[in-house]
Amino acid sequence: MRSREVDALLGEAASGNRSVLTEYESKKIFAAAGIPVTKEILTDSIEDAIAAGNKIGYPVVLKISSPEVSHKSDFGGVYLGISDEEALRVACEDLKKRAEDASIEFSFLLQEMVDAGQELLVGAKRDATFGPAILFGLGGIFTEILDDVAIRISPIEREEARRMVREIKGAPVLDGYRGMPPVDLEAVVDVILRVSELMETYEEISELDINPLFGYEKSVLAVDGLVLL
Amino acid sequence: MNRFFEPQSIAVIGASKNRSKGGYRILENLIEWGYTGRIYPVNPQADEILGLKVFPSVSSLPEIPDLAVLVVPREMVLDVVEEAGKFGIDRMIIVANRFSDGDAEGQKLEESLVELTESMGIRVLGPNSIGVVNTKIGLVTSILPLEAYKKGGVSFIGQTGMFLGGFARWITSSQYFGIDKVAILGNKCDLDEADMIEYFGSEKSCNVIALYLEGVKDGRKFLKKAANVAGKKPLLILKSGRTRIGARATASHTGSMSGEDRVFDAAMKQVHAIRVYDFDELFDLAKALSYFADWPSVKGERVGVVSVSGAGCVLSADAISDCGLMLSDLSEDTIKRVISTYPPGWMVQNPIDMWSAIEEVGADEAYLKITQAVMEDPEVDGVSIIFMVIPTVTEMDIRRFVQAIKVYEKPFAICFMGGDMRVVDDWERIIEEEKVPVYHSPERAIRAIGTVLRWKNGKV
User: Between residues 213 and 242 of chain B, which touch chain A (CB distance below 8 Å)?
Assistant: First the structure.
């Protein structure tokens, strides 16, 4: 079933000739699909950003939101652990200056600062031959350097998603390794199944990435992500 | 599909008197293979080829043949298809190439061909296909001169003609496994690999399906049809073009980590197909899976090794580990039986280095007693038996040995490391005639045994 909200977000990007959705838009889509995402508010002015920071509650995270910036950290547009209103104002001024120096259109994205969880990655890519391929791995160096991922072609059944989670070499990490709490695997499986549904429902999505998905003992949370048309 | 593979009658349109032409060779092959149906050569300029009456046109045929093979140049294909279609023929193999595999004009011709055949309800194999084989009825449509295949359980699906070309000669001149059917897909303008998997999957006479593909035409259809065969018949897949698309920079991590080949690999695993990486492996596994198709299922993946060579023992153990299999932990009773063939004071374990036993009791008794003891151990699921055929070993009665070991119905392979090739060639024939696979390296033997064990315990 298509949702009006997702249709609107995808339609807006398409009509703007954008193939990469912003983090804010992407996470709206994830949330609409039933994937837990961080609390966040998008604003256009510093005053609104501060009001949003107060509403979310400190510490907060400030990120640049712009269709022209897909690698926010590389751009220097991510401010973690902002502890109060004063610090948020300083961060907003800094972000504004960077964006104006680079002469790009931008907004302020305010997010709750969440506890670090086990970094996970759930992604999907539409393969020209087989259709949507769904990918799962541990985040960070596990995926980037060790290339330790499990791939399935959608649609995926729950049992298959469970096998996928167990298939990676780093699977013992999910059970709680060296005093780390175990990860809520059923919640991870839910995310995989919802990503599979998203890809089956919205043919205009060519790729998506939830990276990182934080895994906790009793939940998961999409912290950053991208949707590509 | 029945009329492609079990036609009662075939028209060869473009039959030729010229011995070097494809239109002659098809007829020659059909006669040579003893095709049981009726053959109708069509050619306006000939009246008799190879003793067969030639018809000047399709419309002059005495009946509507089940299948037509078109051996005419691409420029004539559309007209001939239309004429044959109007006459009532609705199954055609189109041999001509340079359609979508050729220039822009060929591409256009193929589009017109699809339009025409769809509108007339004609099913097509090809173009650019040398067609089909069904050994049961001596059916062969290759334009290359072929010796008849032995009947058996392996069916091939090839994108290109190699299973009815170079490899056909190699199989008939050096291999002993039998073949059920072959389909050469060519450009797949209509029928594709998924259709063939479905059909071969439903054919009782076929027990292994082996594919060589350069690409999959319709991935979703392929997965659906392959999933239906999964678990019932082994599906071996060799796909070329693995490295064509290197990693490309993309915005998402997923994009860079799910290249075309990884997705293909995941797709094959999902339908429990067995992916192989070269033709040697394809044939190695195909014959083993076919020979043991009717043997009972196995519990595990525990392998026993009986070897005349110490190197064979160690290489086998490494291969067992590399393939993710296990070395059998032989029981005390088995060990006792094994060392009864050795000089006093010997200790053995799996892999069993049996040289001293051969010296003690002779090759016949050593091989038989030791292998029987290993086969009877419940900790053993499959066995690799390594021979080095040198004087004294050459005196063995190999047929009697293989027959005695077959009764256990536990998958096993015979491996020859070196040896007197005049004897080895002879033994290989004898062993393979008993439907036991022979290999010439310990690694290939273990890989084959491992695949059979995984197939038989449901882990493929």
Answer: 215-216, 219-220, 222-223
Q: Do B219 and A131 touch (CB under 8 A)?
A: yes
* Nearest Cβ partner for A130 among B220, B250, B253: B220
In chain A the domains, ranked by start, together with CATH numbers, are: 39-113 (3.30.1490.20), 118-228 (3.30.470.20)
Does residue B273 sit at the A interface (CB-CB below 8 Å)? Answer: no
Per CATH, domain B133-291 is 3.40.1390.10 = no
Tell me whether residues B263 and A133 touch, CB distance under 8 A: yes
Instruction: Give pLDDT, residue B247.
Output: 40
The domain ranges of chain B are 2-127, 133-291, 302-456
pLDDT digits (tens, 9 = 90+) for A78-102: 999 999 989 899 999 999 998 888 8
**For B195-238, what is each residue's pLDDT tens digit?**
999 999 999 999 999 999 988 889 999 999 999 998 899 999 99
B263 to A153: CB separation less than 8 angstroms, yes or no: yes
Chain B contact probe: residue of A129, A196, A208 with most B CBs at under 10 A: A129
For residue B254, the distance in angstroms to the closest alpha carbon of chain A comes to 5
Q: Which of B221, B252, B261 to mutate to test the interface with A (most CBs of A within 10 A)?
A: B252
Neighbouring CB atoms inside 10 A of B375's CB total: 22
Query: For B47-77, how does the pLDDT look when each residue is reduced to its tens digit (9 = 90+)?
Result: 999 999 999 999 999 999 999 999 999 999 9
- Burial string for B76-95 (b: 16+ CB within 10 Å, else e) reads ebeebbebbbebebbbbbbb
Q: How far apart are CA B450 and CA B305, in angstroms?
A: 12
CATH class given for the domain over B302-456: alpha beta
Distance set, CA B131 to CA B67, B163, B296, B456 (Å): 11, 10, 35, 32
What does DSSP say about strands B179-184 and B132-134: parallel, antiparallel, or unpaired? antiparallel
Of A174-178, A211-215, B283-287, B290-294, give the lowest mean pLDDT range.
A174-178
Cβ <8 Å between A130 and B216: yes
Q: What is the mean pLDDT of residues B136-148?
A: 94
Q: Which of B108-112, B165-169, B380-384 has the lowest mean pLDDT?
A: B165-169
Question: How far does the CA of residue B213 sit from the closest CA of chain A (Å)?
Answer: 13
Q: Which residues of A touch B (CB under 8 A)?
A: 20, 70, 121, 123-125, 127-131, 133, 135, 137, 143-144, 147, 149-153, 160, 207-209, 211, 226, 228
Tell me what pLDDT residue B258 has: 58
* B271/chain A closest Cα distance in angstroms: 10
Measured distance CA(B142)–CA(A136) in Å, rounded: 46
The pTM of the full predicted model, rounded to 2 decimals, is 0.89
Query: Which CATH architecture is the domain B2-127 placed in?
Result: 3-Layer(aba) Sandwich (3.40)
Rounded to 5 degrees, φ, ψ at A50 are -70, -40
